[in-house]
Amino acid sequence: MLKKGFDNEKYLKMQSEHIKERIAQFGNKLYLEFGGKLFDDFHASRVLPGFEPDSKLQMLLQLKDQAEIVIVISAEDIEGNKVRGDYGITYDMDVLRLIDEFKSIGLFVGSVCLTKFAGQPSAEMFINRLDSMGIKSYKHYKIPGYPSNVEYIVSDEGYGKNDYIETERPLVVVTAPGPGSGKMAVCLSQLYHEHKRGVDAGYAKYETFPIWNIPLKHPVNLAYEAATADLNDVNMIDSFHLEAYGETVVNYNRDCEIFPVVHAMFELIYGKSPYKSPTDMGVNMAGNCIVDDQVCREASKQEIIRRYYKSLCEKRRNGSTKDDIYKLELLMKQAEITVEDRKVTVAALEREKENGGKPSMAIELPNGTIVTGGTSELLGAASSALLNALKALAGIDKDVKLIEPSAIDPIQTLKINYLGSKNPRLHTDEVLTALSATAANSETAMLAMKQLPELKGCDAHSSVLLSNVDEKILKKLGIQLTCEPKYEEDGRMYHKD
């Protein structure tokens, strides 16, 4: 069993109650900006072991009778075909995916708001598509001088030109496919329009990271900087909060930079601001639900190393130099860690040496045992390590063949003779297919198959970059993979994914 450092049940209860309190604070109308991911916050689950990836969603479900959702998307992102990296789909398609996901669990999606709208043809087509589906959409426009020209922004020529989003419920959750969509601007625009209609609505921000009530250089907060290295996000002490309350808390640069503007906007809309600091605007209770600080520290250190490897691999694949590598190296120094603090890295590289330089892979099982696998005539390193891990979990002797060569041969024949592959070795998807077929007549293979859920959350490291197929399968199994930034045949100019 993987150790837990976070009490998820406590979190759900505390978080929903805190949001209810904030709704009541503002006369029963609150615009809540949801940062991060709603369905699949795997970063949070990695650095806070015990945090469920859908915790935010589960929390919302406790408020579903009070809540409606507005999904925000930038018209510029639609026009630029911006892609969500984890799903490989464009932002406009992700909006439709999100609508389906929300509706499937009983959450009410009120509308979609297109920000930075300037008549982009692709955005117009998307609006027509939403209309054909019966989904309400609204347009918000670029405002000259945003965000510094506050008096112009908070006027009929600024926010006043935006469409007023019709909402029905006291809690309006404003979310988006990714960062930079304009969620905060939508919330503040709505406050302006609500005020003109005699409603003094409120605004709050729900971000899991950085966690405001743990130290600035706590590994959990450093891991957030690692996760957003490409965005140049920097954690910092909230100077506004320190001045107002004499309390040292953590926020991040973008919120601290924009707060004077937000504060001035509140004053223009309402006559006074309800908040004295950017931390005041937040409603995150995660810091109160850490039950084993050491577990969360160690998990976060591992996440920083994973992010470092990810950046190195992206550089190797794309050939570009990114400043985020240097930032990640700095974060590792601050966390006092090196790549050698990742046990599977050390084990994989040792196995590679023993294997005559052939690609190797190591997987750390829930009990701390590390198993390895190397490239052979039949199997790739990832496939070999995966089978060895299943054997270890099932208590099967390592010398037992889970899949007979007779089951592998037809797959190799198909690959080489009919599908044009030059590599006869089986990828992880092919190995699992062969294992499942074998399990129909083998109790041993079936026992191994049943261990697959136990791999969720396990760390793994490959001595070479893996194919997209292997990476996807390991990801689906919940394995936390890192790779050395090199190819099996590193001298070649072209490498097939």
Question: What is the CATH architecture assignment of the largest domain?
Answer: Roll
Q: Helix segment count?
A: 20
Overall domain count? 2
Oligomer: single chain
Strand content: 5-15%
Strand order, sheet with most strands = 6-5-2-7-1-8
Q: Looking at CATH, which topology of the largest domain would you report?
A: dip2346 fold like
Core attributes:
497 residues, alpha/beta, dip2346 fold like, Cytidine Deaminase, domain 2, 2 domains, six-stranded parallel β-sheet, four-stranded mixed β-sheet, 20 helices, 13% strand, elongated
Please characterize this protein's 3D structure.
The protein is an alpha/beta fold. It starts with 7 loop residues before the first helix and ends in a 14-residue tail after the last strand. The chain is 45% helix and 13% strand. Helix 1 crosses helix 3, helix 9 packs parallel to helix 13 and helix 18 packs across helix 19. The strands form 4 sheets. It has a 6-stranded parallel sheet, with helices on both faces. A 4-stranded mixed sheet has the order 12-11-13-14, sandwiched between helices.
Short summary:
Helix content is 45%, strand content 13%.
Topology of helices and strands:
Elements: H1 8-25, E1 30-34, H2 42-47, H3 55-61, E2 67-74, H4 75-79, E3 83-84, E4 89-90, H5 91-104, E5 108-117, H6 121-132, E6 137-141, H7 150-153, E7 171-175, H8 183-196, E8 202-206, H9 219-227, E9 235-237, H10 239-245, E10 250-252, H11 253-270, H12 278-281, H13 293-318, H14 323-334, H15 343-354, E11 360-364, E12 370-374, H16 381-394, H17 405-418, H18 428-439, H19 443-449, E13 459-462, H20 468-476, E14 480-483
Parallel strand pairs: 1-7, 1-8, 2-5, 2-7, 5-6, 13-14
Antiparallel strand pairs: 3-4, 9-10, 11-12, 11-13
Helix pairs in contact: 1-3, 8-11, 9-13, 9-14, 13-14, 18-19
